[in-house]
Amino acid sequence: MSAGTQPSGGLDFEGWTCPLPLRHTPNVVMGHGGGGAMSAELVESLFVPGYGEAAATELGDAAVLPPVEGRLAFSTDSYVVKPMFFPGGSIGDLAVNGTVNDLAMVGARPLYLSTAYIVAEGTPMEQLGRVAEAVGRAALAAGVRLVTGDTKVVDHGSGDGVYINTAGVGVVPEGVELAASRMRPGDRVIVSGAIGVHGVAVMSCREGLEFGTTVESDSAALHGLVADVLATGGDVRVMRDPTRGGVSATLNELASASGTGVVLDERLLPVPAEVRDACGLLGLDPLQVANEGKLVAVVAAEDTDRVLKTMCAHPLGAEATVIGEVVADHPGVVVARTGIGGTRVMDMPIGEQLPRIC
Amino acid sequence: MKYLDEFSDPDLARALLDQIHEATTGQWALMEVCGGQTHSIIRHGIDQLLPDGIEMIHGPGCPVCVTPLAVIDKALEIARRPEVIFCSFGDMLRVPGSRDDLFTIKSQGGDVRVVYSPLDALRIAQDEPEREVVFFGIGFETTAPANAMAVHQARRLGVGNFSLLVSHVLVPPAIEAIMESPSCRVQGFLAAGHVCSVMGTSEYPPLAQRYQVPIVVTGFEPLDLLEGIRRTVVQLEEGRHEVENAYPRAVPAEGNPAAKAMLEDVFEVTDRTWRGIGEIPRSGWRLSPRYADFDAERRFSVEGIDTAESAICRSGEVLQGLIKPPQCEAFGRECTPRNPLGATMVSSEGACAAYYAYRRLDLVEAG
Amino acid sequence: MCLAVPGRVTEVYEESGTTMASVDFGGVGKKVCLAYLPDIEVGEYVIVHVGFAIQRLDEESAKETLATFERMGILTEELAGPEEQVARAAQEAGR
Fold it and tell me: Which of A135, A237, A277, A324 could be joined to C26 by an S-S link, Cβ 3.0–4.6 Å?
């Protein structure tokens, strides 16, 4: 609005926006989730402009979609990250990229997302607006359409800030079969880049832990990288995005689902110095820290070089590297070779990562 | 990080290991007192690289493991109260009390918060003057100065809604208790480096003399641990029993005088029960009378708690090095890291949790 | 029991009557209480535990310790017979 440039007392019809109903309430109130006029206004004045080009023309209760060729992939995930905004991203980016990545990990090209919000009464409208914009930007970048959605408001105290659920639909190209059951001894384990970055970025601004760091979340949509990898024709057995629980949880899941063992070499792990140092300070293991823009791929040994080269040529896989291999020994167990040549069993992380003093 | 990475160098580690292998002719049982060292030994796989003649016995230097059940139960009772914000280091949240743990209390609506430093808890007390903020003051001599400072500051700044639930423990009396135990197998100690950073090394020569055991002050990085082990073994092979400092970069002989003065002001020595071990005379600190107003046990009357350890858990014997974890009937069956019966299964430095991971591998390899 | 890490003091200041410091742990910065090491100057290394500097890190002594380890490494190499050295080189290459 350019009111400041108008002559005193002049009228500025072009710069005028309706101050009602959103402007009169700086915070979300129960009525915004009531399904009535306020709900509609929230969609019209906040979500539609926030989503921008990524939104379907009508964000209705249900979307009718054109027919697609091929098998459908369908996924859903909920996002509750605290704080909502962190270095390098927000809950909005995660809500799009997380579900897009879940689709990508089965080899799908993501097409459509739904977005459903649960917002605590009292949440600043400005924050919700920023989240909606982040969702719109991330969807546009990922090339997915936001086609349907919902908003509910809960009592102050029943929730905290903004929670988002997204569900996504994608299409899996002919011949793509990614499954842990296809892992074989001798396969190589590749990670697409630096690990632990997202978790450290979020922890750096979590209440009670705050520390200074230049680390930013790696939140990104990986389907482009996945498409390039699949296009090599190399035998990729399975892919996973190592989010909560980090690479450690992912490899443990893969080992137990496939009935093979995994051996990884800690000297090969791409852990940025800042992640290592932050983890050292808090007593955490970088292998158990969350990633939001990385994938772990298990690839047939003979195709490893080809796949790795392709990954490295993609901006999101530039630092891809082999970190270990699949073995017939110790099925279901992940063993790490340590920096000084010892070994340790890398167990499934038990729960939330907590800083420790011992 | 500078002064960490250099002490993890694989080539130098190999050189130290070669020296250890060369020096070892006998069968030696060494105890690393500190849980942080246990963690590091397991984390880097050091125990598997040592000669067969060296056995590492994991010591009781883990506050998660030895904080007495009665204190855990008190913490849970206090944390349950609606007016209380209960602050703790992350380590303590999964430690089982008689019935619950702090995570459970939190899930039932208790305001339990993880903080990095006791000063963070003090700040919460200043920010929320209408609430009672209680900090769970556990740990060894390394952690005690931080907790002492929080109480000292609370008094100086008049923060009346802050209090400390204290259960501090001390290393030298524990070494004494271990050596006095009739079934003791320990022949040499790696003393806890960071405890000595605060307290200095003067408490150890009398112990080395009395019990004829080498005591080597040891750090936490792989090279530090290997050097501590090497020096202890060399002493044992040569029949010496002296106090040596293998961690001089962080341990001056006098420790930290300013911290020791504060400890003297804020705390006083008391008898302390160690979970799984029993009462060890003069092995703990409690708040001195000058700071009694900040004692959470006084502020919140916590009476009539009926403590009950798991009937089948043998973590006490494990902590004393009397049995190995797999000798406990519950180990790996009723008791796993996901469902711990005893504190030694909780912490990653706890002997049972450490064994659990390796047992799986051993079984698989044997099968 | 005691996770404590070395960091470099980048700033020393007073906060409500207590000496505090900004400490850099290789790119990770944290506010640390310096009350127990009042004589520390900017640029020195301290050992930090739960937000408190508990001891000065003696850089000279750190260098000496490393130098001792390095001498041991050289000594071990010399002690090893030629066969062992070949075996070790092969092992290195295979890593």
Answer: A277
